């Protein structure tokens, strides 16, 4: 492994000083945290160009202002508010040729020293044609633009996923053989209709579980083909969840994956799940992922600057198997926290448990989720309001089906190269860009996340906690009364049935 001598050590902040950075996917979960960390910990950084498109009637300038106004940037606003002015929105669309960028904006890339490619579709059920455009075409288009324009480029980090080759249950920090020629797949996407490609999906992908993992795996092959022309590195995060430390503990801005499961359970909507309770989920805090991305670019642009382009540096941003979470433990801890800080809009008591028995799962799904939602929707409609619970249950079940492959299997990830990033940092850089991972991701990590989820996702202010606790207490009382009545009726029915013939 290449190293820097003490006198030639270029710190992380020095590396980014006065250097322009370009990001795709800057408005996403990881992208936001990456922008915040760069601006706060690299105060002398140049401009941060963020590729955006107009969306829902908002211009890119409006979306940039909205992005920087979110609570994630509160700490930066207090410490160095002028840094926010370094964010420069650039119009573009990753599904278009040349990323849909204007010629004058492409020219601005000539001063870019570091590029981060985070943009991708994370939907597991995207049609193959859309996944190809979002995950493979965008990667090639970006690399072509950088190759022709950014003459002073020092590093390009492609953010993939630790599940890009999910058939391997132990994932090493290396590239795996391609399942198909990505260039031929691009030609097929141009030639065939979406329905035709979807029909060929199983054959083309060698039975990959979904279009997301398949196209993300092929995007890594795009990186491999460009490794001799661009200073590339790949970072593969596992399941990215709430921050563990920076800039605040427990921050998250989406309902994806386990977050959505925990919120819907806390609202009393989800009562069961089809999974193996003892299976483990590999959760990595988003701020740890972001530091890995920043350091991967730093190492590629300093220590590895003149190193051979082969093999391509790959970093699995994940935790050890021992640090990963059992679903059962995560859900049980979740119930504890939900009783301590319940949601004010809870529909019923958070209750239920996962099962590994498919027949029992569908039995519980119908009687504890579908039927109650249907009856409540009838009541809501009768009261003159728009029903929503059945529609929500359909959406939740669709997410459960999309995630089923992942919750019913387990993976272990090699993290040697990721951890080595910390060993080559000096004391000051280790303090700013290093991380500490607890032995278990339960405890304070989950606890801090719940109050933050309550504030920023569910939009429950802290002053509603007393009301929410009183509401939950009333629900528990009513639930016990209902159980008592039902048990009493059952006893009476059994008594009458048993002794009816003797009367």
From TrEMBL:
Q: Does the keyword Lipid metabolism apply?
A: yes
Instruction: Tell me the enzyme class.
Output: oxidoreductase
What one GO molecular function would you report for this record?
alcohol-forming very long-chain fatty acyl-CoA reductase activity
List cellular component terms (GO).
peroxisome
Q: Which GO terms describe its biological process?
A: long-chain fatty-acyl-CoA metabolic process
Q: Which residues cross the membrane?
A: 359-380, 477-495
- EC number(s): the record gives 1.2.1.84
Keyword Lipid biosynthesis applies: yes
| Listed Pfam families | NAD_binding_4 (PF07993), Sterile (PF03015)
Q: Where does the record place the Fatty acyl-CoA reductase C-terminal domain?
A: 369-460
List the catalytic activities from the record.
a long-chain fatty acyl-CoA + 2 NADPH + 2 H(+) = a long-chain primary fatty alcohol + 2 NADP(+) + CoA
- Every Thioester reductase (TE) domain range: 23-293
Q: Which UniProt keywords apply?
A: Lipid biosynthesis, Lipid metabolism, Membrane, NADP, Oxidoreductase, Transmembrane, Transmembrane helix
Q: What function does the entry list?
A: Catalyzes the reduction of fatty acyl-CoA to fatty alcohols.
Q: Name the protein family.
A: Belongs to the fatty acyl-CoA reductase family.
Name this protein carries in UniProt = Fatty acyl-CoA reductase
Originating species? Anopheles atroparvus (European mosquito)
């Amino acid at each position: 492994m290449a190293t820097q001598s003490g006198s030639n050590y270029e710190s992380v902040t020095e590396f980014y000083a006065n250097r322009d950075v370009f990001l795709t996917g800057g408005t996403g979960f990881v992208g936001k945290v990456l922008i915040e960390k760069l601006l706060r910990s690299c105060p002398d950084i140049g401009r941060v160009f963020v590729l955006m498109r107009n969306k829902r009637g908002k211009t890119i300038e409006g979306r940039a202002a909205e992005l920087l106004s979110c609570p994630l940037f509160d700490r930066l606003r207090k410490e160095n508010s002028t840094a926010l002015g370094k964010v420069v929105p650039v119009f573009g669309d990753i599904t278009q040729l040349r990323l849909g960028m204007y010629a004058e904006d492409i020219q601005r890339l000539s001063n870019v020293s570091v590029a981060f490619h985070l943009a991708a579709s994370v939907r597991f059920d995207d049609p193959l044609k859309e996944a190809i455009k979002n995950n493979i075409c965008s990667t090639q288009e970006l690399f072509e633009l950088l190759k022709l324009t950014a003459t002073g480029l020092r590093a390009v980090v492609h953010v993939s996923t630790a599940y890009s080759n999910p058939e391997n249950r132990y994932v090493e920090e290396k590239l795996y053989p391609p399942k198909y020629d990505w260039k031929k797949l691009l030609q097929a996407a141009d030639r065939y209709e979406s329905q035709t490609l979807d029909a060929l999906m199983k054959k083309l992908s060698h039975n990959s579980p979904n279009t997301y993992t398949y196209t993300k795996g092929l995007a890594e092959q795009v990186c491999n083909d460009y490794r001799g022309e661009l200073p590339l590195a790949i970072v593969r995060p596992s399941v990215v969840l709430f921050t563990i430390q920076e800039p605040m503990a427990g921050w998250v801005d989406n309902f994806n994956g386990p977050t959505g499961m925990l919120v819907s359970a806390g609202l009393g909507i989800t009562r069961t799940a089809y999974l193996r309770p003892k299976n483990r989920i590999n959760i990595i805090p988003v701020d740890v992922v972001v530091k890995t991305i920043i350091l991967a670019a730093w190492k590629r642009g300093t220590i590895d600057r003149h190193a051979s382009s082969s093999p391509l540096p790959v970093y699995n941003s994940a935790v050890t198997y021992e640090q990963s979470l059992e679903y059962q433990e995560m859900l049980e801890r979740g119930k504890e926290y939900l009783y301590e800080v319940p949601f004010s809009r809870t529909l019923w008591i958070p209750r239920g448990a996962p099962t590994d028995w498919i027949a029992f799962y569908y039995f519980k799904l119908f009687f504890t989720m579908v039927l109650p939602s249907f009856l409540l929707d009838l009541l809501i409609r009768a009261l003159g309001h728009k029903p929503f619970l059945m529609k929500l249950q359909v959406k939740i079940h669709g997410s459960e089906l999309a995630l089923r492959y992942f919750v019913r299997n387990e993976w272990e990830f090699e993290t040697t190269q990721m951890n080595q990033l910390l060993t080559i940092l000096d004391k000051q850089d280790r303090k700013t860009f290093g991380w500490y991972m607890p032995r278990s991701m339960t405890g304070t990590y989950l606890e801090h996340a719940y109050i933050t989820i309550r504030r920023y996702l569910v939009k429950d202010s802290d002053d509603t906690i007393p009301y929410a606790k009183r509401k939950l207490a009333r629900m528990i009382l009513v639930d016990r009364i209902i159980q008592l009545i039902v048990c009493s009726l059952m006893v009476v029915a059994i008594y009458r049935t048993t002794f009816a013939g003797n009367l």
